[in-house]
Amino acid sequence: MVSRVIPVDPFDLVIFGGTGDLARRKILPGLFRRFCAGQMPEGSQIIGAARSEMTSDEYREMVSEAVAEFGSGGTCEAGTLEAFLQRVSYVTTDARGDDGWVELNGKMRDDTVRAFYFSVGPSLFGDLAERLHRFGMATPESRIVVEKPFGHDLETARALNATLAQHFHETQIYRIDHYLGKETVQNLMAVRFGNMLFEPLWNSQYVDHIQITVAETVGVGGRGTYYDNSGAMRDMVQNHLMQLLCLIAMEPPAKFDPDAVRDEKLKVIRALESVDWHHIVRGQYGGGENGPSYREDVENPKSRTESFIAMKCHISNWRWAGTPFYLRTGKRLKARASEIAVVFKEAPHSIFGADAGRHRNVLAIRLQPNEGMTLDVTIKEPGPGGMRLLDVPLDMSFAEALGPEAEEAPDAYERLIMDVIRGNQTLFMRGDEVEAAWAWTDPLIEAWQARNDVPKTYDPGSSGPEDALMLMHRDGRKWREVKP
Ligand code: NAP
Predict the structure, then answer these.
(1) Which residues pair with 110 in a beta bridge?
(2) How high is the mean pLDDT of the chain?
(3) Which CATH superfamily is domain 180-405+431-473 in?
């Protein structure tokens, strides 16, 4: 397979929060890998900006350590890091003060693409937007990249949209959801809209139900205060799971262009029915030998915030009426795995009799680990003894199918940053999408808060609370096993 790196124009990329965790773990190593792949043309520069007093040399040292620690990629030649670091500099800048801004502006060039990555806490987004404008850095061609969380609820998301809109047009705002940058997620669109095989079956007539699981083994880690104020609904469902749901459920857009795709996603969110509280299970991991409990982790002995949520949703439109979508996500579960499973209905009549058992085709799209897809098909169990049926997976691991090409494929952050440079917003959330997602989640959160709902405790390393299993069992269905 021929490796194809699509060239981009030279760019100036300022990373506000350039000393932070996200910059060190994802953004900077990702940019280095793009540099190695030849995707950072001559004349491009990366400028770290944060309050810490640091020279550019000291910052380059930090970048070099971040690249060493968080992955340099397989194909970088010796000496490449030195060449990359020559493109990197640092300006001490305060989002809430005027220090550093004149110097930062002095580094900007007029004839290059300008991108400003807001890798800072959301309370600083407005300050950054305002200062970029006031210091004359926000040209009509410049772009801002905004990290999650985008608001805490509908009201705050609206306010944030309004603040950013004072200084930037919607076409300049890139609200990042790194799930959308994953290879498999984009493949979901390729599979749905590039093949004739699936589309005729992609509706409530043939699909029994759809499961979306994003399971993590880690706890809340050092994000205790933030997480306890958010919970799984705000931290995961409102953005990542909702985006996956949109891609799996949306109508085919007329073309693969940013607004056509996002218009269709928005229609899905707006067609989501409110969820009956019997169809929501909230959980919190307990503690014990395996480590601290959720409440210990967040240092809040009375916390009622969920570290796990499972729910059954319905989409009120012609395609999906009657097909449930089961979503679940949680921390400290038994495996780290993200998967979308489209479970088809059984054949209407079995010619093989009751002994052959019940069988369903399942198309499973694995987001992590080991990105790929499997399609479970029913075959005859080999050997004598009559017609016994067996479900076996047609398995496509991208790493195996695509070989080294898959290994070298850009990760989600790399891909999305390059999309920003190209000016392609297809894989970024539009303001109205984010607001619609909050408009759906807010009443659900308010309802359980009004009921003083207490999350069910679950064992770390399990599949979540028993009630989540019951949510499926009651409907005669079961969750797919999450495998590491
Ligand atoms: P972090 O480690 O706390 O870093 C925050 C950065 O902001 C630091 O570089 C800090 O540097 C800078 N900063 C703080 N106050 C500032 C100010 N007044 N002016 C200029 N810079 C300032 O946070 P993070 O984990 O990197 O997260 C950054 C953003 O990404 C957050 O919105 C977070 O929700 C989001 N995010 C993070 C991850 C992740 O894996 N880390 C994942 C998804 C989303 P100084 O203290 O030197 O100023």
Answers:
(1) none
(2) 92
(3) Dihydrodipicolinate Reductase; domain 2 (3.30.360.10)
Q: How far apart are CA 63 and CA 73, in angstroms?
A: 15
Taking the whole predicted model, whether its pTM rises above 0.90 is answered as yes
SS3 368: strand
Q: What is the CATH number of domain 11-147?
A: 3.40.50.720
- Give pLDDT tens digits for 244-299: 999 999 999 999 999 999 999 999 999 999 999 999 999 999 998 878 999 999 99
In whole angstroms, how large is the CA radius of gyration of the chain? Answer: 24
Tell which atom from ligand 1 comes closest to the C-alpha of 17. Answer: 9
Q: How far apart are CA 30 and CA 24, in angstroms?
A: 9
Q: Which residues pair with 14 in a beta bridge?
A: 47, 116
- The residue among 96, 122, 265 whose CA lies nearest residue 180 is 265
For residues 412 and 180, give the distance between their C-alpha atoms in angstroms, rounded to a whole number: 7
Q: Whose CA is nearest to atom 38 of ligand 1?
A: 22
Residue nearest to atom 4 of ligand 1 (CA): 20
Residue 126 backbone dihedrals phi, psi, to 5 degrees: -65, -45
Q: Is the CB of 120 under 6 A from ligand 1?
A: yes
The verdict on whether residue 447 carries a ligand-binding annotation is no
Q: Is the dihedral of CA 406, 407, 408, 413 positive or negative?
A: positive
Give Cβ neighbours of residue 106 (< 8 Å, ≥ 6 apart).
none
Domain borders along the chain are 11-147, 180-405+431-473
Distances, alpha carbon 362 to alpha carbons 69, 342, 411, in Å: 39, 6, 27
Strand-pair category, 11-16 with 45-50: parallel
pLDDT digits (tens, 9 = 90+) for 440-456: 999 999 999 999 999 99
DSSP secondary-structure letter at 291?
A: B
Nearest to 403 by CA among 74, 36, 46: 74
CA of 445 to the centre of ligand 1 (A): 27
Residues taking part in catalysis: 240
H-run or E-run covering 202: none
